[in-house]
Amino acid sequence: MQLTDEEIRSILKREKLKKRRKQQTRRRLFLILLLIIAIIVAAFIKFRPQPEPLVTEEQPVRGVIFIDPGHGGDDPGSDNGARYEKEDVLKLGLAVRTYLEGKGFEVHMSRISDESVDRELRAQMANECNAQLMVSIHRNKADGKGEGVEAFIPKTDSEESRLLAVNIVKALAEAGFAERTVRAGTLNDPAVDYPEIAATTMPSCLVEVGFISNMDDNKRFDNNLDQNAQAIADAVDNTFRTIYEPGVETDEQAQEEESQAKG
């Protein structure tokens, strides 16, 4: 039996309609499945046990300390062949910062990399961050046989700055360096200040941590870097307690009391 053109068109139309309905059915089923999955996921997220939030108690900041590693950038400071002051004091300064932060201090630094910072700007930076103590770290050099640690304080020779300097010198001497002296002003003139501490508004000092021209001092510096950093940090801590926390016993006082108790 031969189909007419009209019958053929009608058959093709029905087949196309049937195919479209199947596609629509598949699409509806797919959307329903997605909806079911979304509902299940949402319910899981809503009702699953939530982990207890980690509770961390933020330690209060005891005070603000400014550490100034001397020189840097195009100013190498003193040298001993391929050894430069700017590199030594940066290593030590960063280590001091770590120990001080462990003691609860907020620590600011004049530099944390090999960069140039004007000497006068260092005092200004310390003032602007409202530091309560400031230590400028350097190394010494001499043509003769110089050795040991010494410190300089502003020419006003305040009791607090002298206490800070004396504590640091003694602490570094206990770490192995020869103990030199604490001076007001500069090495050549007690009426003139080193720029790093000339305009500071807080107790401050400039400490010379051994002679870079002395091989034994260099060994003391390198082999005991952490011990030297801890000595400076402890001295700063004890000074801070004496000035700003007078009711808190210092480490030295605790050791002395313990020694007396044993005696």
Describe this structure in words.
This protein is an alpha/beta fold and 263 residues long. The protein has a domain at 63-245: Aminopeptidase (3-Layer(aba) Sandwich), CATH 3.40.630.40. It is 50% helix and 16% strand. It contains eight helices and eight strands. It has helices at 5-47, 85-102, 119-128, 159-174, 195-198, 215-223, 225-244, 251-262; strands at residues 63-69, 79-80, 83-84, 105-109, 133-140, 149-153, 179-184, 204-211. It has a six-stranded mixed beta sheet with strand order 4-1-5-8-6-7, sandwiched between helices. It has a two-stranded antiparallel sheet with strand order 2-3. Strand 2 and strand 3 form a beta hairpin. It is elongated. The termini are far apart.
Essential attributes:
two-stranded antiparallel sheet; elongated; alpha/beta; 6-stranded mixed sheet; 8 helices; 263 residues; Aminopeptidase
Short description:
This protein has about 260 residues and is α/β, with parallel strands linked by helices.
CATH superfamily of the domain at 63-245: Zn-dependent exopeptidases
How many strands appear in the DSSP assignment? 8
CATH topology tier name of the domain at 63-245: Aminopeptidase
Contiguous helical run count: 8
Report the major sheet: 6 strands, mixed
Distance between the termini: 128 Å
What percentage of residues falls in helices of 4 or more residues? Answer: 40-55%
pLDDT below 50 for ≥5 consecutive residues: which ranges? none
The best one-word shape is elongated
Please provide the ordered H/E string of secondary-structure elements.
HEEEHEHEEHEHEHHH
Output the CATH class name of the domain at 63-245. Answer: Alpha Beta
Mean residue pLDDT = 89
At CATH level 2, the architecture of the domain at 63-245 is 3-Layer(aba) Sandwich
Strand order of the largest sheet: 4-1-5-8-6-7
Helix-strand makeup class: alpha/beta
